Amino acid sequence: MVANDSTQVQYCHAEPTVQLGQLFMPMHYAKTNQLTKASFDPHSRQPSYKFCAVNVVV
């Protein structure tokens, strides 16, 4: 996967619960945090959902 700030090698597989054109990585994985920006709600300080655009190279 290639994102704006990081390039990673990951193993993946297709699941019927993830829509075509999307991928899922648990947000608690350190590698996920390297791909996404740290953002949070300024009032509650709760972490935001993590998302970013990636290019998957097979």
Describe this structure in words.
Helix content is 10%, strand content 0%. The mean pLDDT is 81. It has one domain. It has one helix at 30-35. It is largely without helices or strands and 58 residues long. It is globular and about 40 Å long.
Reconstruct the topology from this structure:
Elements: H1 30-35
Any descriptors?
10% helix, little secondary structure, 1 helix
How many strands? 0
Give the CA-CA distance, first to last residue: 9 Å
Q: Give me the Rg, rounded.
A: 13 Å
Percent of residues in helices = 10-25%
Number of domains: 1
Mean pLDDT: 81
Strand content: under 5%
Q: Uncertain regions: pLDDT < 50 for 5+ in a row?
A: none
> SSE string, helix = H, strand = E?
H
Helix tally equals: 1
Oligomer: single chain
Helix vs. strand class = little secondary structure
Sheet of most strands: none
Shape: globular
Protein name: Molybdopterin dinucleotide-binding domain-containing protein
GO molecular function: molybdopterin cofactor binding; oxidoreductase activity
Pfam family, one: Molydop_binding
InterPro entries: Asp_de-COase-like_dom_sf, MoPterin_dinucl-bd_dom
